[in-house]
Write a structure and sequence with these properties.
alpha/beta, two-stranded antiparallel sheet, binds NADP nicotinamide-adenine-dinucleotide phosphate
Length: about 280
């Protein structure tokens, strides 16, 4: 059972291991299995559920709404995202209302600006704070914000209330560790890792073939994908949201929260896949 949490700046707790939903709900013939996977994950403690108005233009939120309909809302941590072009006073309130309707709930635990756009950040922050006051969202954050984007955000009134930055992070893409992650830490913003299993290896075939990773995974009786997830979860202030559309993958991912490696094993992994020693642009999917 995954009970580890990440403490947010408002004192709230966010589950460290969650479930992504991108491309889920896209096809009627796989929806039943996807709902089964999500419910299984929740029963195993993966109660942080990530979606977006973008995913299938609402289909993912609708699927997730069906999955959670019989469950107790207060045991879930629901995250959705607004398109950048909807993140201003003309559209955000309707966007949020539509997400809530599709999810069958009356509040989100976290609402994210999906990526930096052209609506002034000050306007987005004002709207996000209004949604908090109205009880539609418990808190807000951003996604795909690099360090300079975070600095701009913190320069507008209320920008410092940003609770989370959701960014691409996996063993084969460690760029955030150089500048962004220390910045987030210094400002009390939690990081949420998307693509934590490198899209099942698609974003890094070298990971699945790597001798060191295969040896260490073999020694623990786990898969390299589970090892990737254990890597993403290794820090106390980072959450991860792997997407699994099959119950078997969900079960494997849930177990990744319990994987403990020896220091020497982490050192071997560090040597094989070191973090960059200089700034690299934020990786984005
Ligand atoms: N903010 C953003 O811009 C952004 C961008 C991308 C993603 N996200 C969010 O982050 C979530 C995760 O990212 P992602 O879905 O792109 O990539 P991911 O979670 O790294 O990888 C998902 C892929 O890995 C496979 N997989 C999962 N668990 C596995 C296991 N134990 N063994 C083998 N294969 C496994 C899945 O297969 P099956 O489905 O067949 O199980 C799926 O093909 C998304 O779903 C979405 O919620 C956010």
């Amino acid at each position: 059972m995954n009970e580890r949490t990440v403490r947010l700046k408002d004192g709230g707790l966010m589950p460290a291991l969650g479930q992504g939903t991108w491309h889920m709900g896209d096809h009627k013939n796989t929806e039943g299995q996807e709902i089964e996977s999500i419910r299984l994950g929740i029963s195993l403690g993966m109660t942080l559920l990530d979606t977006a108005e973008m995913y299938g233009e609402g289909a993912s939120e609708r699927m997730l709404g069906k999955a959670i309909a019989p469950l107790r809302r207060e045991e879930l941590f629901l995250v959705s995202k607004v398109y950048p072009w909807n993140a201003g006073r003309d559209n955000i309130f309707k966007s949020c209302e539509n997400s809530l309707k599709r999810l069958g709930t009356d509040y989100l635990d976290l609402y994210l600006l999906h990526w930096p756009g052209s609506v002034p950040l000050g306007e987005t922050v004002e709207c996000m704070e209004r949604l908090v006051v109205d009880g539609k969202i418990a808190r807000w954050g951003v996604s795909n914000f690099d360090t300079d984007d975070m600095e701009k955000l913190f320069s507008v009134p209320g920008g410092e209330k940003c609770a989370v930055n959701q960014v691409l992070y996996h063993l084969g893409s460690r760029g955030v560790e150089y500048g962004l992650l220390p910045w987030l830490r210094g400002h009390g913003v939690a990081m949420m890792a998307y693509c934590p299993v490198a899209q099942g290896g698609i974003l890094g075939r070298q990971l699945l073939m790597d001798k060191t990773l295969n040896e260490i995974a073999g020694a623990h009786g786990i898969t390299v994908i589970q090892l990737l997830l254990a890597f993403a979860l290794r820090r106390q202030d980072v959450a991860a949201i792997p997407k699994a559309g099959t119950p078997q993958h969900t079960r494997e991912n849930a177990k990744a929260g319990e994987i403990r490696l020896a220091d020497a094993e982490w050192e071997r992994i560090e040597t094989a896949f070191p973090a960059p020693a200089h700034k690299v642009p934020l990786d984005i999917q």
